[in-house]
Design a protein that fits this description.
globular, alpha/beta, 13% strand, Rossmann fold, 276 residues
Length: 276
């Protein structure tokens, strides 16, 4: 069984949709990249929103997407699947595609260890990238299992402003424990409260419950902002769109905290010469 000795692999997972998984992947990737870290985003979602956000090609035009990579024989296809030209500095991408929706059954039929194909493929990238971020689909099926089996760490975005934000959290935690049988060193970094407004009672109550449920909450809360959708439409990070916005500062603070927690070594800071 292989492990990642040098690269931190973070799965951003929650089987609920619309909780900020892709937004978190994109903006952490951007912040890590601007810090001088070499980043790879792996889009495991058939909706391919991360690919549409940061990729310069449409996912349907990509020859070797995450779907083909998972099903490929051997471990030598990874370089062909990685696209270094994205809208984010120091960030490469393995595209998602609609074909991922059909991959789960094929993995069951074609591979002896259907949950471990992504890890097998990504192990060849250990030491090439500082951080690999995996955007998971909104399910606990085989694609998410592959992401968790490949990951060194996991972050669970939770919609703070929703009374249903923690619905199914116990199922998610049970699934993480199940994956630990094949990936025993997988570490939960914590729940990430998204669309959080500390003035609202529902957010305060959910924060307490989330801490009890997951055992830990990441110290930065992400606020609600219309700029999240604006950034996606403009294929921009929040930092590039409006670096002074509260939500931009929060993602930068989250990235800085993770750099310290994970022992990452960013490049020396340089003066930024970008618009905005």
């Amino acid at each position: 069984m292989g492990t990642f000795d040098h690269t931190r692999v973070i799965a951003i997972a929650n089987h609920k949709g619309g909780v900020g998984k892709t937004t978190t992947v994109v903006n952490l990737a951007d912040a890590f990249g601007r810090s001088g870290l070499k980043v790879l985003v792996v889009d495991m979602d058939p909706q391919a929103n991360a690919s549409l956000h940061i990729g310069k090609m449409h996912p349907s035009r990509v020859d070797l997407s995450c779907a083909q990579l998972l099903l490929a024989a051997g471990v030598d296809k990874l370089p062909q699947a990685v696209h270094e030209d994205t809208y984010l500095e120091n960030v490469s991408l393995i595209y998602g595609s609609l074909a991922l929706g059909r991959v789960e059954e094929e993995l069951k039929d074609q591979t002896p260890r259907p949950s471990e194909e992504l890890r097998t493929k990504l192990e060849t990238a250990d030491g090439i990238y500082d951080v690999i971020l995996i955007d998971c689909p909104p399910s606990l099926k085989l694609l998410t299992s592959n992401a968790m089996a490949a990951a060194t760490h996991i972050i669970v975005p939770v919609e703070s402003g929703s009374q249903y934000g923690l619905y199914g959290a116990e199922d998610l935690l049970k699934h993480i424990e199940k994956i630990k049988r094949i990936n025993p060193t997988l570490a939960l970094l914590g729940a990430l409260l998204v669309r959080h407004d500390e003035r609202q009672t529902v957010c305060k109550l959910l924060e307490v419950t989330a801490r009890e449920t997951f055992g830990k909450i990441l110290p930065v809360r992400i606020s609600t902002s219309t700029k999240v959708n604006q950034a996606a439409v403009m294929q921009s990070s929040l930092h590039k769109l409006d670096r002074s916005a509260k939500v931009s500062r929060e993602y930068r603070e989250l990235a800085d905290g993770l750099i310290a927690t994970l022992g990452l070594k960013p490049a020396p800071a340089e003066e930024e010469v970008e618009n905005g």
